[in-house]
Amino acid sequence: MVEYDPSGGARSDAPSPESAYAAALGPAAENTAVTRLQTALRHSGQYPRASLEREFRLRRAALADRLALESGEECDAAEAARTAYELVAFDLSDGRFVLGPAGPGSSRWEDSARPYVRQEYERWAELTDGGRDARLRDTGGS
Predict the structure, then answer these.
(1) Pick from 70, 93, 123, 142: most CB atoms within 10 A?
(2) Rounded mean pLDDT of 93-109?
(3) Other C-beta atoms lying within 10 Å of the C-beta of residue 79
(4) Given 3-state DSSP classes, what are the helix, strand and coil percentages for the chain, each rounded to the nearest 5?
């Protein structure tokens, strides 16, 4: 299983942060989207719960990774590692939503789960235009 690694675990076989987050919303807009997803999870019923939870975990982990990369602070890196690990754990228990070529149990993520987040976010962003899907536009989140 993947352990916490605050270092960020740069790997040549995972997308670079620049590539993974190229289509991402700005940090403030992404934080708003993550908060809305968290609220929706508390009041589920509108969307399939597992899909919604996966999106929440992915976007929260990606946002934490981006903030850690920007700040360089150890506490932010630890938070990014923690949320990345939570995504891996979720995907190991319910692999229906894995999008990238290397699954959550891959040896690629032995050093760090943060590159897994980048892989998954990059693919998710390709499919959703970085989260600018109809659901967000309808709620003013773009």
Answers:
(1) 123
(2) 93
(3) 19
(4) 65, 0, 35
